Amino acid sequence: MRKIIRMRRRYQVPGQPEDSHRLELEETRAVAAAKERLLLIHIQEMEELYQVLRARVKELEAARQENQEMFLAAMEALARTLEAKDRYTRGHSGRVAKYAVRLAAGLGLEDGFIENLRLAASLHDLGKIGVREEVLNKPGRLSPEEFALIKEHPLIGARILAPLAPLRELIPWIKHHHERYDGGGYPDGLKGEEISLGARVIALADSFDAMTTDRPYRKALPLEVALEEVRRGAGSQFDPELAVKWLELPWTELAQLPLTCH
Ligand SMILES: [Fe+2]
User: Fold this and answer.
1) Domain boundary among 61, 85, 109
2) Ligand 1 center–CA 15 separation, angstroms
3) How far is the CA of 256 from the centre of ligand 1 (A)?
């Protein structure tokens, strides 16, 4: 463009500087218009690219959601597999999950933690799949050897779930759901806050459901008696802060909920 202007200047008729100036002005305007058109094309292309990216992100989010739902359905199937084998704990995992979620919500814990808790509580007894059926379903009290077999189930559950990367954080909650706050539990004899919060919540929900439902060796305890057991166990069997919150839950209302549903 500058070359053209220079050529025009060389062949300019003397005495007509206005024409040359006008030409230069027109050329500058033409260049500006061309630049503007290019910019508009560029903006349009960017907008199209943005739309394509948005659609792709939406697709990926839908696929992620679908994968998550499939994963949760597979976990639910695992939990139900156990309940098909162990008739005394039918409905137990679902109720423990409900109680654990209710306690966690009462404590104001964050949504992500509560969702993980729901899953871990649903799977907490999965390891019983690895315990012989005649021991699991034995009416009456267990012998020390049989009880030793039952006590393996938190470790078996942790081993079964170990290859599943999305559950890595939850595995200690399952492995330690039979630990006691005073260190007298199993499998590792952990004490106080050495036991993860998820495991402490599940331990309380699990024991409470065991107390309030019929077992092979005894009838369900009345609600008031079970709540008194939680009060007595605060600081020994149970985390005292969790026990206090547990006793504040609206149990009259919760007791009306059907206990056998998931
Ligand atoms: Fe258990």
Assistant:
1) 85
2) 105
3) 25
pTM, entire model? 0.77
How far does residue 109's CA lie from ligand 1's centre (Å)?
A: 23
Q: State in Å: Cα 177 to ligand 1 middle.
A: 7
Pick the closest to residue 95 from 180, 204, 168 (CA basis): 204
How many whole angstroms from 258 Cα to the centroid of ligand 1?
22
Lookup result for tokens 């993980």: 116
Whole-number Å distance between alpha carbons of 262 and 259: 8
114 Cα–ligand 1 center, Å: 19
Ligand 1 centroid–CA 123 distance in Å is: 10
Same domain, 179 and 234: yes
188: helix, strand or coil: coil
The reply to whether 81 and 93 lie within a common domain is: no
Residues in the chain: 262
In the reported structure, the alpha carbon of residue 23 is separated from the centroid of ligand 1 by a whole-number distance in angstroms of 91
Picking from 85, 112, 138, the residue at the C-terminal end of a domain is 85
Per-residue pLDDT, 243: 98
Ranges of beta strands (E only) in the chain are none
For residue 191, the enclosing domain spans 89-255
> Do 121 and 183 lie in a common domain?
yes
CA of 85 to the centre of ligand 1 (A): 14
User: CA 117, 153, 212 angle in degrees (round to 5)?
Assistant: 60
Averaged over successive runs of 10 residues, the pLDDT of the chain (262 residues) comes to 58 64 90 93 92 94 91 87 78 92 96 96 94 87 93 96 93 98 98 98 96 84 94 98 95 64 35
